[in-house]
Amino acid sequence: MKKLVLLTFVLLLKSSFCFSKIILPQVLSDHMVLQQDTEVKIWGWTTNTSEKIEVWGSWNTDTVSTLADKGRWMVRLKTPAYGGPFTLHIRGHEKLQINDVYIGEVWLASGQSNMQMPLDSVSKGYRGVTHFRNELQKANYPKIRFFDVYRKMAETPQDDTPGVWIVCTPENARNFSAVAYFFAEQLHLNLEVPIGILHSSWGGTNAETWVRKDFIISDSILNTHKLQREGRARPTEPGLAFNAMIAPLQNYSIQGVIWYQGEANIENYQIYHPLMQKLINSWRNQWEIDFPFYFTQIAPFSYRKRTKPPYLREAQLQALDISLTGMAITNDVGEAGDIHPRNKRPVGERLAKLALSRTYNRTAVNDMGPVPDTVIFKKGKAYVSFKYASGGLTGRVNETSSIKLAGADRKFYPAQAQIKDSILIVQSEKVQEPVALRVGFDNLGEVKIINTEGIPASPFRTDDWPLIEVED
User: Fold this and answer.
1) CA–CA distance, 278 with 276 (Å, rounded to integer)
2) Which residue among 359, 382, 403 closes a domain?
3) According to the UniProt entry, where is the signal peptide (predicted)?
4) Mean pLDDT, range 256-284, rounded to an integer
5) Most exposed among 186, 392, 440, 464, judged by the fewest C-beta atoms under 10 Å?
6) Which domain holds residue 154?
């Protein structure tokens, strides 16, 4: 009888061991790119709740280990300078192997529809980028890899997200985020290292849903003015997109973030600047590192009779006071009749120019479009100097009606302008004593002031007069 009980116990033990599993998050999988020259986190779960887990990469002989705690485990593994392909090994009661691993530079790309928009023409809303067939034919970069995060929402932070790493080939690239692809291409060509993109975006989403919920509700102003649209198929409430599409990535080492969003927050533009501060801080808090965050100013679009879009662009311009940020200006690549402009290459390239200059210390005379520095009103004229205007400015400033002056009566009139070196000089016969200047401060945001890098200036105004509301 004792022998029978002992045999039964041994069989049960073997059966339990056979069904035990070591589980990895899906972002740790074949074809991934790990951040170079750092300690990356490798983590997962095991049903053998307190076993020893060992991890090593084929790039050296170092092995790191840890004991699982209630089924969870994590180690930090040093990565060398760029290279590959490598294999990553995980061993406990079973052994796992991740193949075709490269080491290089990893960036997170996020936002709403203009970040989601793919290279190829896939719908009426997403018509493909300019010359998309030619772009796809050239998209043969096996050392660029994309991890697309599935679009879903969650009430609480999630540990994992569905997704696979995809190698960049002409066949695979059609659904890649166009902006992220052009960004990755420029980094790859200039740095000559593998590039990994974690792509997590969702069309039509407001910024609040990408922020940790506690960061919103603890701020009385943001909590009062947050956008919440009930009954929609996409997340709008604070934290819903963050929980499902950002939180699962927080252990994955990244170099920085690129962001294209804003159209969905035009209605509460007043809080967009502090909202972006909260978003950036909440993400940096999750990764425990002050990474660079480069974002895109919303592109020109007619917006019917709405009057708020230029104020959202202004809020984005103001967000440049957040540390380690930069902005890709897009008022020369928009389409008045399409909120998803097709010319995405300059957008990705301008974000890459910021990264190459500020993150990788590659020399650029002007890594961003001109933004106003000082404004002086003197003898009936406005004199504007600009940052990012080294080498002078050019432009057909009198071919646009978007440059306007106002006096104390707050009535704006079209003005005449000229550029001398890097100074914009503006005057109007109808405004003898100007006190306010607006340049491109309308829905189309047209600004024909260009620096030596060929990047246009941001729309701006010098006044802080309140918006006169116009109904849609």
Assistant:
1) 5
2) 359
3) 1-20
4) 97
5) 464
6) 104-359
